[in-house]
Amino acid sequence: MVKEHLVTKDLNQSAALLSRAVRIYGLEVTLAFWIEEEDGWRLYFVSPEAEGGGLRKCYRKIFPAIDDLREEDPEFDIDHVRVISPSYPLAESMMPHYNKYSRHHANGVDFVDVGPFIILRLNRDAVAA
After folding, report:
1. Contact criterion met (CB below 8 Å) for 37 and 82
2. pTM, entire model
3. Would you say 77 and 41 are in contact if contact means Cβ atoms under 8 Å apart?
4. How many CB atoms neighbour CB 70 within 10 A?
5. N or C: more exposed end of the chain, with fewer CB within 10 A?
6. Residue 59 to residue 22: CA distance in whole angstroms
7. Considering only CA atoms, which of 6, 7, 13, 126 is closest in space to residue 69?
């Protein structure tokens, strides 16, 4: 099920998911973002590990992080989460927005709200602590 609306809970859960996937399960993430598509919002993780057929490896790292979140919130919906490679056109189009000013912070993640999409920036110093 694709999300029709994003709420604070969605942002906080995506921040926790990004933080856990990187810190605990070792997923290399260069960019993460929510984007509003025709049928609703989707959460994308951009990982160089996805290059050359490595998607299965990426999902093996992200699914345990999702399972952790589902223990806290059984209603956490994984259907809106996707992993793509940096060479995927959508990822390439999002990279210029990565360094824009952030406005919200949760779980060691900064959010950059740019209208039809929200960039998640992992604050590596906060996550490492």
Report:
1. no
2. 0.81
3. no
4. 13
5. C
6. 12
7. 13
Q: CA–CA separation, 39 vs 37, rounded Å?
A: 6
Low-confidence ranges of the chain (pLDDT < 70): 1-5, 99-108, 114-115, 122-129
Query: Which tokens sit at 55?
Result: 């998607």
CA triplet 84, 103, 123: central angle to 5 degrees?
55
Token pair of 111, please? 């959010």
- Give counts: helices (H), strands (E), the chain: 4, 6
pLDDT one-digit tens code per residue, 15-48: 889 889 998 999 999 889 988 888 778 899 999 9
Contacts (Cβ under 8 Å, ≥6 apart) of 84: 44, 45, 46, 47, 50, 90, 91
Tell me the one-letter amino acid at 86: P
Q: Ramachandran region of residue 105, left (φ > 0), alpha (ψ -120 to 50) or beta?
A: beta
Contact 100, 119 (CB under 8 A): yes
